[in-house]
Structure prediction request, 405 residues.
Amino acid sequence: MQLRYRFRLYPNGPQRSALARAFGCARVVYNDALRARESARVAGLPFVTSAELSKQVTVAKRTEDRAWLAEVSAVVLQQSLRDLDTAYRNFFDGLKGKRPRMGAPRFKSRKDNQHCIRFTANARWKITPGGDLSLPKIGDVRVKWSRALPSVPSTVSVVKDAAGRYFASFVVESGTDETLPAVTPEVGIDLGLTHFAILSDGTKIDSPRFLRRAEKKLKKAQRDLSRKAKGSANRAKARLKVARVHARAADARREFHHQLSTKIIRENQAVAVEDLAVRGLARTRLAKSVHDAGWSQFVTMLEYKATRYGRTFTRIGRFEPTSQVCSQCGVKDGPKPLNVRTWTCGACGAVLDRDINAAVNVAKAAGLAVSACGARVRPELVPAQRTETGTHRDGQPTVAGIPSR
Prediction:
């Protein structure tokens, strides 16, 4: 299993200039290759292969207009061409229905919020004995190590985000067996806005609402940005302040998701969640709250951590009527307005909490054996009493009134 580890970088002045040069060269090579392929498509010529594009980059380095491409590592330029190949492959796979449809590759701008370059083993980058990251034609960059890498990384990507921060992203292969000891509990999760997550055992986890809590600072920073002249240095500084407010909220949300997902995976043998239509919910009046919750990121963490630690992860269909079915007797009594948080089942008389009831139904739909009261959702068959045994019309014996087949 491949894992990605990200660490903060602290380049000095000359190193930031070298990284800016590398970002710019990678962007120019990407745009030149994209322009060559688009020109060939418009002219009705065959698709330009990656080998031809690589030769064009080599020739461009010898010209006066593109001689500065030789100032950066050749691996960075070749990886930029690979990124373009990946963009085209994803685009064509979307047209064929192999993956969700996405747009055609677009030209990159120096004003994009994020810049990235990648070094493979051929670039001969290394981690120095002093703990710095040595990059070709850039130097030894200081790294803030928060943990040890589990194995030797195959590639490293240097990323600059919208807030002006630099990160080193390593891809490593997890070869060791990280399966956790087996436990008994199994849980279903219902995600919401008032409470971020409701577990089928009755636990309710409040939503931190990181973006809502940062709105006061964000409002002030955006007001200052709107008052700066476009294209000025002060506007660039104000834009960084806005980006940093967003980055702090995103980092806090990611940390919350990591801690909660790890806790759930460690304490439960199987986890089930509902497949939510986040893209559709993000077009409603609840869009800001939906994005602030970050459901997709949390579910993705649950899924890969379950695979990593030997747990079972299940998604149930988004059209399962988890909020309409009584978790006690299974009677479906129809949809209810969102302001109805508790109700009494008309069939069995059970008083149901809307969120806990939905979490229990998620567990049932996934075939898990837990409920809000701790009883088993799927009780095992027990031998029938002598007075209960019998025979079906087709001659098949029954156990506790249930056909053996």
In short: The CA atoms of residues 324 and 334 lie 5 Å apart.
